[in-house]
Amino acid sequence: MNVVPVHSPDHFSTARRKLWLEAVNLQAAYWTWAEHGWLYKEHFYDFGGSGAVHMLGGAASLVAAVVIGPRIGRFSRDSEGNVVDNHIPGHSSALSVLGAFILWFGWYGFNPVSTMEYTRMQAATRVAVATTLSACSGGTTALILSVWYDRHPSVTPIINGILSGLVGITASSSVVEPYAAVAIGAVSALICGFASKALIRFRIDDPLDASPVHFFCGLWGVIAVGLFASKEHAAEEMPFSSELSAKTHAGLFFGGDGSQLKAQMIGALAISSWSFGTCCILFLGLRSLKILRVPVEDEIKGLDITHHGGHAYNMEPMHGGPTKQEDTSTCPDDGTPLRSGQLSDYIETSYIERRNFHGGAVPEVV
């Protein structure tokens, strides 16, 4: 079996990052935060970037997951022809937890510092409290859901619950009361959990649940401003608001007339449409140039070996014993050892099944 080379050289990676930054990200940021941005003029409010940062990037990750297609072995069929979800666990739960806490700590530089002035410590403190409560609420809700569905607590859903709470509160952390932050975090975790299961149902492989956490919870965070913003904080924090117009810019649940909710929905629709549209063009173009996905053999063998010149771990004995590594390839579906010659057969079978499921979003076999 021959596979048309599909690789991602460093110069292509740099070009993609620059293209994403200039063509997609900066445009949405300008709309949202610049005084001449049209969303700013529409009174769209996104304090820290639930929409302009997280929803935008989450939409890109969702498009990428669809266009690239699932990892080999992620979905298969049983004897009756039904699609089976073969969960591929992460590398290290301990490192995942460490990464989550690093992100959580970094969020205090992301949200409170967005007040932009060291003299506004009262506002920064309120933002920090809202950020903390939403993250805790999201993690706790995810823990309850994990026990409810899986009958035992699972680490990954709790991590995603914490992150979803952080994403959900980012837009509104400066204008909501602490108890509203708890509600926003809880709903964020619910949205993340259901969105993750929905992606699996549609056979969309998002290994990190980036789109449930960032797109769907970012969307909720943007909408939450129009529901939970208090009159007092809206008049103080929203640059286009005042005591006279506080009712207009307050959340619907806090005496608002719905105007701010309308502005938030317009912003959510505009940013998500912009990201989906531009990223479809970008990723479909990269796929047509065959620089989006690695060859099937490289994916089976592992990118540590094929792209970085080594194993993640050195499994050779330190003293004595054989030094030449034997062929210990295993089937990604069930872990069954594959003898010489069986690996290529498995690759071709998995490739054909995946191509049939996802409309050719994989390298062509010639």
UniProtKB/TrEMBL annotation:
**Subcellular compartments:** Membrane
User: Is-annotated flag, keyword Transport?
Assistant: yes
Record-level GO BP terms: ammonium homeostasis
Q: Which cellular component terms (GO) are annotated to the entry?
A: plasma membrane
Keyword Transmembrane helix found = yes
Specify where the region named Disordered lies, as residue ranges: 318-339
InterPro entries recorded for this chain?
A: Ammonium/urea_transptr (IPR029020), NH4_transpt_AmtB-like_dom (IPR024041)
Q: Where are the bilayer-spanning segments?
A: 47-68, 88-107, 127-148, 155-173, 179-200, 212-230, 265-286
Q: Where is the signal peptide?
A: none
Can you give the residue ranges of the Ammonium transporter AmtB-like domain? 19-313
Q: Which UniProt keywords apply?
A: Ammonia transport, Membrane, Transmembrane, Transmembrane helix, Transport
Primary location group: membrane
- GO MF, one annotated term: ammonium channel activity
Question: What is this entry's stated membrane topology?
Answer: Multi-pass membrane protein
SUPFAM superfamilies (alphabetical): Ammonium transporter
Q: Which domain of life is it from?
A: Eukaryota
As for family, the record states: Belongs to the ammonia transporter channel (TC 1.A.11.2) family.
Q: What is this protein called?
A: Ammonium transporter
Q: Which organism is it from?
A: Tetraselmis sp. GSL018
Classification of source organism? Eukaryota, Viridiplantae, Chlorophyta, core chlorophytes, Chlorodendrophyceae
